[in-house]
Amino acid sequence: MEEHEICDAIHRRQRARIWYRGGHRVIEPHAFGVGDGGGAYLRAYQVSGHTHSAEQGWKLFHLEEIEEFKAQDETFDGPRAGYMRNDPNMVKIYCEL
Asked: How far is the C-alpha of 34 from the C-alpha of 62, rounded, in Å?
């Protein structure tokens, strides 16, 4: 997975299918950047798939734990309710809606 693939999906508002912590998930990627510890993160709205919390919705994914990222043909209209630009969990943002 290349970082530009994530930014392309964000700018094109494409849903993505990822493999994360034991299962596939379908997400709407909103922001990609770096947290205070230096790790890369993806802020996304999970619409379906595997989850340990038994909830869909807003998630902060650790990039190093995403084993597969595949942008889908399906797009989404725009930011979901509750989306906050300049995510406070990120000290540097590479791309965002």
From this structure: 10
